[in-house]
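Project standup — Tuesday

K.O.: blocked on the structure for the chain from last sprint. Re-posting the sequence here as requested.
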Amino acid sequence: MFWWFFEYLNRFVQNWYYVGEAFGPWSYFWYATLPFATVLPAVLSTRELVRSCAGVQRAFGHITPVSGPGGRWLSWTVLALAAAGLAGIGVWPSILSRFFGSRRC
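H.V.: unblocked you, prediction finished:
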């Protein structure tokens, strides 16, 4: 579901497209679901692998997390605004893509 959310948003903003054989909707769904489903698990498992290396722990284990003013309420507010912005792309695509869409050179 993670990647399909970005595919859904791309229907409105058209930031990327796929080159190659044109598939129908159901064919595209089945041919794309398996490769898309491997992206997030691959990134997260690579992160865990890197974090488990002793050299990485020695080099970066002493770094403390950055904290800023506002605490958790600010974090949740920023997250809610970002989610509203992403949802807005689907609701008002022409308005938001005009301001935040890709620029063609």
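K.O.: great, moving the ticket to review. The chain has a mean pLDDT of 80. The chain has six helices and no strands.
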